[in-house]
Amino acid sequence: MSKVLTSRSEDYNQWYQDVVTKADLADHSAVRGCMVIKPNGYAIWEKMQQALDKMFKDTGHSNAYFPLFIPKSFLSKEAKHVDGFAQECAIVTHHRLKTIGDTPETRQVVVDETAKLEEELIVRPTSETIIWNTYRDWIKSHRDLPLLINQWANVVRWEMRTRLFLRTTEFLWQEGHTAHATSQEAMEETVKMLNVYADFAENFMAIPVLKGVKTPNERFAGAEETFCIEALMQDGKALQAGTSHFLGQNFAKAFEVKYATTENKMEYVWATSWGVSTRLMVALIMSHSDDHGLVIPPKLAPTQVIIVPIFKTDEERAAIGEAAELLMRELRAKNISVKFDKRDKERPGYKFAEHELRGIPVRLGIGPKDLANKSVEMARRDTLTKEVVPMEGLAEHIAKTLDLIQSDMYARALERREAMTHTVNTWAEFEAALDKGGLIYAHWDGTPETETAIKEKTKATIRCIPLDNPQENGVCILSGKPSVQRVVFARAY
Asked: Whole-prediction pTM value?
């Protein structure tokens, strides 16, 4: 099956594209820049949704839904916000079409110019404006706070260069939008949700992440502070895997969202927003997969165990089927998702390769000899190792193996990140580290001019200023000016 995919060493970008398409995760759409998420890919996204949704609700948030369309005038209410999204907005100008031409050969569908909208509508690039316009009606008193809302939705950002899951014109995400009585409460919420994202990335996706704050140049449009989690991919590039924004009172003031305090004074509320998207699929693929295909952490695998029968006669097939049904009941009793590959037209070797490509964590092969020996052949997808395991106590052994796969995948990703993390003090050391790939801790003088100059020279950006970053006097790698701390640079997706 390795011949199905371009190898990572040969062409990493093509390898990624091959995994996405050959593992049936997504496909290109007839609409430029958009993608079709196939059932196999959507099932993984659903697992992500379910885990995150529970984490959001466990921290007191409720789901709601807001309109896809936003009046254009709303975006102009927050200057930094509109500047940040203006070049990516899709605009609805008319509400009706008409046909012209009397024959099939001449007939065309055109815009009905008499149906021009009184106010043009923006197709949602993010929902701060439409949500804060709504919050003005929802929030009147301190009793209405905090307001903790999340929505699962799609957004549209008119991207010029697209790649499946990584950057598409339309993508799926969740966006949290909360309102608070004080700045401190809002900042605590911002950091809390950053920690939720980090918890999810590390304990479900098996990806170690670096938590930090963005520089002003990289800050979300309209935010006072942007916090992020950064992950490192196998090719040494960073990927922003989630963001949480402290919005201050910017949107509250733009939309006149005030509340009556306990002293009956009117005050503007304080806001946050936070989100992750289907870009998490990129992190999962690029962090763990190999030249044989997709590798999925067990906690996010729609199917954790696949059973492949090996038989020649109907009697053998029936006997293996009975053993498989018993095992599936035992596994499902342990909340382990399992399927039995009953397809008659495909040979076992083809099935093995297909399930390997799709990344199912554990594969069991059962044939007549296995039944006679009361054992099965168990293969781990992450290590491609096989072992013969007794049927007695098999369900318990599989449960422990799934836990081990989950922890081993995280450990390997952490080991790789540590091996690809560099500390440099000079520009020459910085350029040499960039050629190796990975995260680079280096001094920066704190100015946007130097940050921009480094980006233009090397295509490397400041990924974040790590939280709890130690103070350390030094000199900027480019300008030579004084610096009080190191920041993290990398080339990134």
From this structure: 0.95
